[in-house]
Write a structure and sequence with these properties.
The complex is a heterodimer.
Chain A lengths: L25 H6 L15 E7 L5 E7 L1 H5 L3 E5 L24 E2 L5 E7 L2 H8 L3 E6 L6 H7 L2 E10 L2 H7 L2 E9 L11 E6 L5 E5 L4 H12 L6 E5 L14 H14 L3 E4 L2 H7 L6 E9 L5 E13 L5 H10 L9 E10 L13 H19 L3 H7 L21 H11 L2 H14 L3 E14 L8 E8 L5 E5 L8 H13 L6 E3 L2 E2 L14 H28 L7 E3 L2 E4 L2 E4 H10 L5 E7 L4 E2 L6 E2 L3 E14 L5 E11 L6 H20 L30 E7 L23 H12 L15 H12 L5
Parallel strand pairs in A: 1-12, 10-11, 14-15, 18-19, 28-29
Antiparallel strand pairs in A: 1-5, 2-4, 2-6, 3-5, 7-15, 8-13, 9-10, 9-12, 11-20, 13-14, 16-27, 17-18, 17-24, 21-22, 22-23, 25-26, 27-28
Chain B lengths: L4 E5 L2 E5 L8 H8 L18 E9 L7 E9 L12 E3 L13 H8 L9 H12 L7 H8 L10 H9 L6 H4 L1 H10 L6 E2 L5 E3 L3 H10 L4 E3 L5 H6 L8 E3 L9 E4 L2 E5 L4 H11 L1 H8 L4 H6 L2 H6 L7 H7 L3 E6 L2 E6 L4 E3 L2 E2 L5 E9 L5 E8 L10 E10 L2 E10 L6 E2 L1 H7 L6 H14 L10 H17 L5 H4 L13
Parallel strand pairs in B: 1-5, 7-9, 8-9
Antiparallel strand pairs in B: 1-2, 3-4, 3-5, 6-7, 10-11, 11-16, 12-13, 12-16, 14-15, 17-18, 18-19, 19-20
Helix pairs in contact in B: 2-5, 10-11, 15-16, 16-17
Classes of the chains: A alpha+beta, B alpha+beta.
Amino acid sequence: MSARPPRSPTPIPFPATHQPIRHDSAPLHVAGTARYVDDMPEPPGLLHVALGQSAKAHARILSIDLSAVRAYPGVVAVLTAADIPGQNDVGPVVADDPIFAETLVEYVGQSLFAVAATTRIAARAAARLAKVTYDELPAIITIADARAADSHILPPKRVERGDPPGALATSPHRLSGHLAMGGQDHFYLEGQISMAIPGEDGDMHVLCSTQHPSEVQHLVARALGRPDNHVVVEVRRMGGGFGGKETQASLFAAAASLVADRTGRPAKLRLDRDDDMVMTGKRHDFEVAYDVGFDADGRILALDLTLESRCGMSTDLSGAINDRAIFHADNCYFLPNVRITSYRYKTHTVSNTAFRGFGGPQGMLAIEGVVDDIAQHLGLDPLAVRRANLYGGPDRNITPYGMKVEDFIADSLLDRLESTSSYQARRTAIAAFNAASPVLKRGIALTPVKFGISFTTSFLNQAGALIQVYSDGSVLLNHGGTEMGQGLYTKVAQVVADVFGIGLDRVRITSTRTDKVPNTSATAASAGADLNGMASFNAARTIRDRLSAFIAARWGVEPTTLSFAHGKVTAGEHAISFDDLVRQAYLARVSLSATGFYATPKIDVDKETLIGRPFYYFAYGAAVSEVVIDTLTGETKLLAVDILHDCGTSLNPVLDRGQVEGAYVQGMGWLTMEELVFDAAGRLRTHAPSTYKIPGCGDIPDHFKVDLVNQPNREETIHRSKAVGEPPFMLAISAYHAIKAAVAASGGSGPVKLDAPATPERVLMAVRARQSGTGA
Amino acid sequence: MADCVRFVHRGQVVTLSDVPPTRTVLDYLREDRGRRGTKEGCNEGDCGACTIVLGTRVGVLGMAEAESIQYRAVNACILFVTALDGKELVTVEDLAGPDGTLHPIQQAMVDHHGSQCGFCTPGFVMSLFALYHTDAEPDRTRIDAALAGNLCRCTGYRPIVDAARAMGRAPDTYTAQMTETLALLRSIERRETLSHPGGTAFAPATSDQLAELLLTHPDATIVAGGTDVGLWVTKQMRDLGTIIHIGGIRDLAGISRKDGFITIGATATVTDAAEILAPLYPDLGDLFRRYGSEQVRSSATLGGNIANGSPIGDSMPALIALGSTLVLRCGGMTREMPLEDFFLSYRKTALQPGEFVAAIRVPEPSADRLFACYKISKRFDQDISAVMAGFGLTLQDGIVTAARLAFGGMAGTPKRATNAEAALIGHPFDATAAKQAAAALAQDFQPLTDMRASADYRLITAGNLILKWQMEQALPPTATRVPAFARAIGGAA
C-alpha cells in the first residue's frame, strides 16, 4: 500500500501568514495515509486492553469474581486497583477519578478492571464476564435529584453587582422563567485510544489521542509511581477532540500503561464507540432560572440568574467550566444590577467535562433566552431588544465580573449583518408566509456572540516551542499544541516560515511530544494558535537573531538592515540563500536550535470571587438563521444561515472559515437534535450514532454564507489574529431562536417555552402549548 | 461446493480460504491486510468512516458488451467477508495513482478544504467515488443522499459538498480498466454453494440451494445484507451458530412487474427496490431515500428488513398500507400471505422452520386508491423512526370503502390501526373523518416511551399525520411538509 506519498501540488504563497493555505495533512487525509494511533504499526507481542464496567450508578462493590475473565481464551492479564504501583487516580484537578473502582461505583460504565488479551475481540468479550455483586445505594441522576438532595461536587459561586433585588422591585416590567438545556457528546470520529510501549528501566512511551499530552504524562507517571521523566507522551494528530480529549484520555492511557508496565509488553486500548460514549464525560447539561426587570424598550435593569449544572460523579474541570458559564452569562449585554449564582451538582452519572465553549454556550444560551423572552413579552423585534442591551459607552462597559470591555465590536457586526442578510425584509416576508400557511411556520433570528479568550485558570496561559534548523536549511518545528483537525500545525508553521523568510514546504511539522516541549497546557480554550504561535514565533526569532548577528558581522552591516524573504537573506547588495546562510552559520558554530516561550499578558482574576480580568480579549460574531417548522409533527428544517465572524486579522482564512462553519453546525446539533437520554437507573440510552444523532450533510442549508471580519485584534496577539475554535459554536444560538420564533408564529403570545435540544417532540409540545394557551 | 471467497482487488483475484465467516471486512482490511486507511468510527454502520466501495457486474450478464460494473458504497464494519464474494473491492488506498497522483475526488477534497481532522475523510472519499461512478452532475439533493451515511464532526459539510460539486467526471482508471475487471469478475462467478471450512457457514448461489440447505439447517441464521445481523457480532458479540449467507443469490434478487404487482426478490437491495417503486409511489421513494443511508441501502434487502421482524423497520407500515403480500418458501413449497399477518409479536414472525421469505409483492397504483407514508425521526437522514406511518385508502364515489392505516414504532410489531380504519370507512375522506380516525388511534395503540420519543408524542403525531394526509388532498406537499428534499432517489442516473 501507498509506497509513495500522495501528491497534491499546491503553490505555496509567500509570505504564508494570512494566506488561504490548506491543512498540511489534507493530501494524507484523502489518501488514507494519515496515521492515527490505531494505524501505527503494531509492535510484536502487543496486547489489547478492554475495561470492565460498573452496571450500577451508585453502589458498594461487595465482590468481584474475575475467574471467568482470566479463563477466557487469549487473556494474558487482568488488572485491578491492587495492581497499581502508584496512585489509583487520574483526576486532573482533584484526585477523585479512580482508574479502577475499589469499593464504590458512582456511575454506570465506571471502570472496574482492565483485561489484556492477544486480540481486541477477546479482550472485549472477556471484559463482560466478570461477576460483580453490588449493594445498591440511592442514585442521584438528574439536576432535580441533586437539587433535592443538596448534592454538590463544588460549592456554589456567585457574582453580584449593584442592587438586584431593589432594582427588580422598581423595574417597570418584570418577568421570570426557566430553561433546561441538554448536554452533548463530543462524537469525535476517532474514539479514545492509547498505545503504551514499555522501554528499559521503567520508561514508558505512550501514543495517545489527547489534547493534553503533558497531563497524560503526569497522570501515567503518577499511576506507575514514577517521576514524569520516565514517561513520554506523543500525539501526531487526533481524529477530532472538541474538548473530549482534554482530560478524558488519561484513564485509557493509564490503563494501557499499567498493562504495559505489569506485563512488559506493549498494550493498546481502543474503546468501542458505545463504550466511549458511556465511559467518557460530556458537555454539562444546565437548568437556568431567571428573574429580570426591564423598561419598555426591553432594556434590562436588573437580573437575578441561577445556573445549575450536572457535573457527574467527580470534579474534573467542572469548576472552570461553570466559572466560564458565569463569565458568559452577559454575552454582549450590559447588566447594571445583576446576580449570577452557579450550582455545581454532583450526580451519579459520568463526570462531565470540557466541550468546545466550556460552559460559555450554556451561559450565553441563558442570557439569550432572557432577552428573547423580554422581546416576546413586549411584542418587540428580538433584534431591537438585543441592540438596546448592548455594551457601549463609558457607563455601560463593565462586565458583571468587573472587566472593562475595551474592544467591543458586536454593535457594528449586528448592523452589518442585519443589512447583508436582509434581515428586516426577510422578517416581513416570513410574517406574510406564516399568515397564509396553516401547517408550516417559518422563523428567523439574529444573535451576537462575545467570547472571552484565555484560560480562566490564569497560569495555564503559557506555551513553549522548540525549533531546530538543520544544516541543510530545513526546519523542524515542535510546540506544545496538538493537532485535532483545526489546522493549528499549519498556522504555526506559517508563522515560523515567515520569520525565516522561507517557503512553508521547508518547515516540517512533527508530533507533539512531552520530551520535546515540557509542561504544556492543553490545546483548549481556543488558545492553541495564540499561545503556540507566539511561542514558536519567539523561538524562531531567537534563531533568526543569531543568524542575523552572524551574517551582519560578516557583511559589515547592521543586523536591523537584514531582510529574510523568499528563501533569501539580503542587505543592500549583499544576498545569500537561507540554506547557504544556515550552512555557513553551522560551520561557524552558531547554535541552530532554540526554545521559545510565551505567557499571555494582562490577565488577572480572583479565582474565588471571579472578579478581575480573566480574558486577554474578546472574539465576536453574529449569525442569522432561518428555519421552518411543521406544526403537526414538530419537525424542523434549517433553511439559511448568514454569519459574520471576527478572527482579527486571520492567520489563515480558509482554516478559520472551516472552524466557523464546523462550530456552527456542532452548535446547531447541540441545540436541535443531539439528545442524551439517561434512564432512571442512570444508564445512557443514547450511546451510539444509531440513537444519538449529530447533524448530517442534509441538515446543512445550501445558503450557508460566512464572512470574516478582517480587523486587527486590538491586543498584541500573533499577527493581530484572534482565536477561533470556540466562539463560533455559539452562533448556532440563532438557529434555536429561529425555531422559537417559528413556534411563536403558531399562535398565542408572550415568551415561548422551549427547552433544548429543540427536537421534533419538544417543538410539537411547544406549539401545542401555544395553541392551547398554556405556553406563556 | 466451493470453499473460498474470491473477489477482485487492484486488478487481481484474491482468494480467501481461512477467514472466519463472521470476520468483518473492516477487521480483515485493517488487521489481516494492514490496510489501515479505512477507519472504524462506530462499528455499527452509522458513521461511514469505514465506507468502501463494491463493484458488481450488472447489465445483460453473459453479453460482454452489455455488461458494466456498478459501484456502490457499503459499510465495511458490519459487512462479513463472505459478502465480498464475486465482487470488486475498492478502498481508499486504491484511488491514487502509482506515482501518488490523487484521484479527482481526492484532489477536489484537498482543493475545497474538505478535511479537518481527516478521520472521516476516507469514508467520504469512498462515498464520493461511488457517486462519481453513478452520477455525472449530481445536484445538492443527490449529494446529500450520497453522503447521508457519512458523519463529519469538524467541517460542517459545506466544503465537502463543494468538493462533490467540483469533482467532475473525467474517466478514471476504474473506467479505463472496466473490460479487464469484468473479465476477472466473470472468472470468479460462482454457481455452487460456498461452504466455509468447518461447515458452519454457507453461501448458496441459487434459491434451490438455499431451500435445500434450510431443510438440513432449520436453525441457521440467515444473513442477507447483514446490516442488522452485523451488529449482533460487532456489538453483542453473539455466536450466530450456523450462518447461511444469501446475499449472493442472484435468482432471488430480481424485480419483476406483471399482473398488477411488482414482485421483489428477497435479496434485492433496498436501492434496487427503490428504483422501481419510487416512480410508482413518490412517497415511498422519499421514504427509501431516508432508509438508513446509501451504504446501508446498498447492502440491506427489503426481504431482510421484513424477515427481521423489527417493530421499527421503515418499510413495513408503507408496504402494509399498499396491501403487499409475502411469498414464503419451504423446500419446494411456497405460500403467500398478507404482510401484516407475518408479524406475530415482538421480533416473532410466521416463518416456519426451514422456511424463508422468497419475495415481496407490491400492488401497482390504481386510480381509486390513495397512498401516503410519513417517517418521523430526530434527524432527517439515517435515523430510526419514532413514528412511521403508511396510509392507504380505496374510494368509491368519494366514499371510503377500504382503509389500511399501518404504523411502526407504536407497538411491538408493525401494526394496522383497525379502529382508526373503521372510523374512515363509509365516510367521505374529509376533516371530520380524519379527526375521528385520529381520535380512534388511542384504542389501537398504547405506545412506549423511549429515547426516541414519548408515548404522548407518538400518539399525538400519529393522529396528526392522519390530519395532515387529509389536508394534503387539497394542499400541495410543499405547504405541509418541511422542504428537506426534492423527490429524488438514489441509484444510477
